[in-house]
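Why do we care about 3D structure at all? Because function follows from shape, and shape follows, mostly, from sequence. That is the central idea of this module. The next example makes it concrete: a single protein chain, its amino acid sequence, and then its structure expressed as tokens.
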Amino acid sequence: MTKHDRYQTDILGEDYQQARLNFPDDYEGQVTATLVRKKANTPTQKAVLYIHGFIDYFFQTEMAEQFNQHGFDFYALDLRKYGRSHLPHQQFYNVRELTEYDAEITEALAMIAQEGHDAVLLSGHSTGGLITTLYAAHHPNHALIKALWVNSPFYDFNMHPIKKKLALPSLSRIAKLCPNLKLPSELNKWYVPSLHQSLKGEWDFNLGWKPKSYPWVRLSFIRAIFEAQKEIHHGVSLSIPILVMHSDRSTHPKKWHLDAQSSDIVLDVKHIAHYAQKIQGDVTLCDIKKGLHDLVLSEKSVREQVYRQLFAWLQQKGV
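And the structure:
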């Protein structure tokens, strides 16, 4: 099969194509991931590879269009067991080590190179921000990756310090024996309702892939995140410039409040900033006033600021 034969029209329409990536079976059986692309109107050797967050998938078409308009071919991965890549025998979002995702990131980058690109901006939102930061740290001087942009990266759990210090190490140990044991997720119930156009937001996405609520989380996911965050907390080193973006504030609405549409209600932005500053290398921090957890889903004037800051930074870094 040639590189061109691998693509077919994506669910987002004719301007988007998707390619199925196949990998060796894991503890649940068959494994696939999905690479989605949207080419710029004029040929370019620059590309972006975007990795979504937890309980998520790629649907942010405005972001893809922004990159196209600025001379980038856009690519996004739906990781294994997420969105387009979920198979009937799989538990959604089930992972035991974040490095399981290295296979699809590496394959996607190889395909991007085969398609004529020599410079890639690696990008990730939330859990995707944690994944991409560690991927960049583990692959220094990668021939293709020239910069990293992370959008509200999941560098620390948003929970009480005592609970974090005492409970997380114990839960991580238990997860080795009981990976599928479930605990309350503690995700703010207003996050997805603040986004979806059928609820209180402006965006259209598949509520089967990014559900309105997700009350339980597997211990395996908690362990995977906890172990990965240890590296961030100790201070990883990057050989490429990184732009770390987050909202200017976090809130915790218990009932519906407009804070849900003007702040991060998932992570603590102070944690993001604190651990971003532990990264060794060329690090730029940028807080976005009234930004949501996924900054590119914020209200129009806010996300316009996100793109202005992002593309100005890329220009400054020569990417």
